[in-house]
Predict the 3D structure of the following.
Amino acid sequence: MIPPGITAMKSCVYQETFGGYEYICYRYNGLATIMKKILLIVLIILFQSCKSESKKQLETEVIEKRTEIIVEEIESKTKEHVPQIDSIMEPTELDIDYIKSKTSPLSKTINVENIIVSELEKIPLEFIAKYITPHKIDIGYPEYLPADYPESYAFNEFKEFDNFYLFTFIHDDENCCRTLYAVTIEKEKLKVISIGVIGFTGADGGWIGKKIGKWTRETIIETMTTSSYDEDFIEKNNNTEIDTTWSIIKTGQNGYLENTESLVVKYVGDKQVE
């Protein structure tokens, strides 16, 4: 017989002894039930935790995959828009034969307006960046030539002198001028000696300018530069400034370009002021 107040569990067995009913079985069964519940709760927590971790891992993998795809798309688009320098680089060092192959023989007269730029060979970006841009301009402007727009540079003419080489190139600045530069090169070290302007033509706003010349001796160029400026563009005011400068450019025996002004004449309207 089971004592009053004691409820038997289906899994528990009660035995009658000389001292009455044994309660140990009941207590033990209650503890086991609690432990089972605790174990079940722990298993549920672990399951949910693993499920959550799996979900997080899956989300992380999806994000990483999407990131990889986006990066690949950006890199692909970047490669399409970045110029491949290797495709336009021809010389890796200053090669006189290369320059000769891209130029024509040096002519006696210098007049940029007569040069057909579309028929000239373009100068590769590496050549400009390595041999032209780093060298300060000894005659003329700007102080240093940029390499931003290689398509605006073109080889023109070439001549071999006793102690140096000389070649000319065109820089076509759409905002202002088309300029002809001369470059002299050492024969032994094949390094640039000097760079200078020997001719140009152009206009900007109210300014119009032109520089022409001719080789009068082996190493001497006689040039004439004309420059006019009309600030208000009103013809009846007749206040246009006109400057004319005659100069001599010498290369000398060492190939260094030097400019000397021999005469300057300046007019304002019809009146000579210099």
User: Anything to note?
Assistant: Residues 24-81 form the longest helix (58 residues). Residues 1-11, 23-29, 73-92 have pLDDT under 50 and may be disordered.
